[in-house]
Amino acid sequence: MINHIQDRVMLNNGIEMPGFGLGVYKVEDGETVINAVKLALEHGYRSIDTASFYNNEAGVGKGIKESGVPRKDIFVTSKVWNDQQGYDSTLQACEETLKKLDMDYLDLYLIHWPVKGLYKETWRAMEKLYKDGKVRAIGVSNFHIHHLQNLLNDCEVTPVINQVEYHPHLTQVNLKTFCEEHKIALEAWSPLKRGTLLSETTLKHIGEKYGKTVAQVILRWDIQNNVITIPKSVHEHRIKENADVFNFSLTEEEMQEINSLNRDERAGTNPDSFD
């Protein structure tokens, strides 16, 4: 388990990734994302998660450059979007991402969604990018167990990570177990269920006990479940607050209480019906 914002977890290919980072989904390119990245890095974050679909890779790259933190100390993730999938177009998409970020390599490159009939070809391209040193690790996002099984049947490189919607209303127990068995790290997007969990009474009560917000309780629950997490914010006080989760621990009983809030309920799309 990670005990500090810069603590890293070992991925299955030997690369180490911070267990806590900043997500920038829906953060506007330009000054907004540049500032969010700079603030996060200033407050100790060392992992930034973007995607070609977010249309803010250029700003993320600028924010990293302007932060003064050496590139080698920052773990940068991006993702190949659905209309870029396929073998040649994935190779091209990665080049475009690197150009926008103004970087020589990515730390982690993910398939954003399992596009039916394409994601295995896309994975072959990811394996090439990995072998060519363009990316230090490759993984997937929004993959169900059956997608992972299909990929694992004949891939040469096992994904290091599966980034999925994960929060107390969607605990993904079977998927988490499957990933653990195959040494695939689980990473949470939308850990706060797009803000809708903030009024959950159980979480409020637990937070009151520790003098913590509901968001902090959820992020702490992620950490204690060994799930990598990337909360999103553009506000300095929230960026600081989200990271202030390393000075308290949830009891086993509280962890179970939070687990029992599961409803198998998504804020985003089910990967099986994503168009």
From TrEMBL:
Taxonomic lineage of the native organism: Bacteria, Bacillati, Bacillota, Bacilli, Bacillales
A GO term, aspect molecular function: oxidoreductase activity
Every NADP-dependent oxidoreductase domain range: 29-262
SUPFAM superfamilies: NAD(P)-linked oxidoreductase
Stored Pfam families: Aldo_ket_red
Protein known as: Aldo/keto reductase
Family: Belongs to the aldo/keto reductase family.
Keywords: Oxidoreductase
Residues annotated as the enzyme's active site: 54 (proton donor)
PROSITE patterns from the UniProt entry: ALDOKETO_REDUCTASE_1, ALDOKETO_REDUCTASE_2, ALDOKETO_REDUCTASE_3
UniProt keyword Glycoprotein present: no
